Amino acid sequence: MKDLIKRIVSASAVLFVSAAVLSGFPAGTLKASAGEVYDIYVGKERVETSNCKDILGNGVFSYEPETSTLTINGNYGYESAELISSNIEDLTVNVIGDSELKGYFYFYKDTTITGTGKLSLSTSDSLNAITLYGGTRLTIMDADLDISGCNAISGSIRGTQDIYISGSYINAHGKEAAICDLNTVSIFRCDITKPAYCFWGEGGIYEADMTTYAKDVRMIPSYDLWIDENKVNADNCHDILDNGIFSYDPVQKMLTISGSFDHPMDQELIYSSEKGLIINVTEDSEIPGYTVLHEDTVITGKGVFITGTGTSSGNSITAIANHNCKLTIDNTRLMALGHVGIGTTTGSIDIYNSDVLAAGSEQAFAFAPDSFNIYDGNLSFPSPYTVGNNTIYDGGSKAAKMVAIERLKVKGDINGDGIINVTDLSLAAAYVKGKRSLNEDQESRADISGDGKITITDISIIAAHIKGKKAIV
């Protein structure tokens, strides 16, 4: 700890006296005739108004005082350099481009590291790459870090600093330890893949013996989504089950299903607490098993999705259960069979322009009061029917065990997939040429002009719609 610093400025400036605690410079923003100076050093250069847009003059570091954000974009430093020393409360370090830095960081106040770029930070084996002082909390949020030193991330005095890691890639390498001497380590939406067996919490991240600090730690983002009891993470999201059927795009929050496989009917297929999940069925897919949803979810796609646990009397599992959230079925074809086909009494269901068949040994649908809606479609079975507070009735007092919903048939959408495209154009052309037949519904949708015939005129109208020249209305 350095002694009390006294600085006397000329009468045209400001007189101040401040204690430098641990960091060697005073807390707060200091005002002088040259502008403002801030409690952060980069490459031992004090950040101030005159240099904050390009602190070192190399385009790598900039500071935005209004948001307390230090931006990093580029390479700089040498191994034994004090690269960043910050006493800024709630500093954000935003890495916007891949950056390789040599040196070490000191943080004396709560700090967040984030950004779309990868930060590689290394220092000598005798120094810590990132050291936390006082009661500092370091948050690593949606970041990509590769850190190495004597200790990669360390507290200065064990038991007073915390680290919170969420949704991040981290490779931490330490000659002595990767992450150590901390009060608590909290990890969310991440999987530790190295060491294969480890423990974390009080102190740091440990090997399987729970006493030895791990020297090499690898973390990857993970998601609140499980497929066949496999948690989805950054390593497996491109092919979750290694069978080419399930993939997940974390940016779009889209789970893609593209194919069928033999899955046990009474076992969980999809479990999700992922906010805003989209299940996109890109091709016809028949997969037994049940789905549990705890956040608003959309099921969509051009493929038919057949799923569930069956309708036998001994079955007590709902095929697709949405708990305290909204299930939206949008422009797709879905068949769900279970004890209850689709829904729970705490969830809501909206169906848009979709063909849906739900069947259950107890009832086809379940939903919260006044929470079932059909748009651009009709409930075609049973007939008559009644939409009650929590289910659909068969016209009497019994819950309907099978419910069919059909999308509205649109002129030009000959194959009934909800889209007017070249497939429909080809069907109309083949019919006119006598190369294929259409059923009654298809003929009705192909007769755009409404003259009772399908001719070259109808083909031209469909083509104009596809090209965007004139929409079919």
Brief sketch in words of this structure:
This protein has 3 helices and 42 strands. The protein is mainly beta and 473 residues long. The chain has a 15-stranded mixed beta sheet that branches. Strands 6-7-9-11-14-16-18-21 form an 8-stranded mixed beta sheet, with no helix packed on it. The protein has a 7-stranded mixed beta sheet with strand order 25-26-28-31-34-36-38, with no helix packed on it.
List keywords for this structure.
disordered N terminus, Dockerin domain-containing protein, hydrolase activity, hydrolyzing O-glycosyl compounds, 15-stranded mixed sheet, mainly beta, 473 residues, 6% helix, EF_Hand_1_Ca_BS, elongated, 42 strands
